[in-house]
Amino acid sequence: MIKVRIQCFWFAVLVLRKCDFCFSLHFPLKISS
């Protein structure tokens, strides 16, 4: 169970990073934080 949760956590982190990257490409003015 713990390993699965860790994998899901890292998967979510990678997805969030991709979303932030794409979001920054579409909205470069919102890269304040």
Rg calculated over all Cα atoms: 13 Å
Query: How many H/I helical runs?
Result: 1
Instruction: Report the helical percentage.
Output: over 70%
Q: How do the helices and strands follow one another from N- to C-terminus?
A: H
Q: What is the domain total for the residues?
A: 1
How many individual β-strands? 0
Structural class: mainly alpha
End-to-end CA span: 34 Å
Q: In percent terms, what proportion of residues is strand?
A: under 5%
Low-confidence stretches: none
Name the features:
33 residues; mainly alpha; 0% strand
Quick recap of the structure?
By secondary structure, this protein is mostly helical. It is 76% helix and 0% strand. The chain has one helix at residues 2-26.
Account of the 3D structure:
This protein is mostly helical and about 35 residues long. It has one domain. Helix content is about 75%, strand content about 0%. It starts with a helix and ends in a 7-residue tail after the last helix.
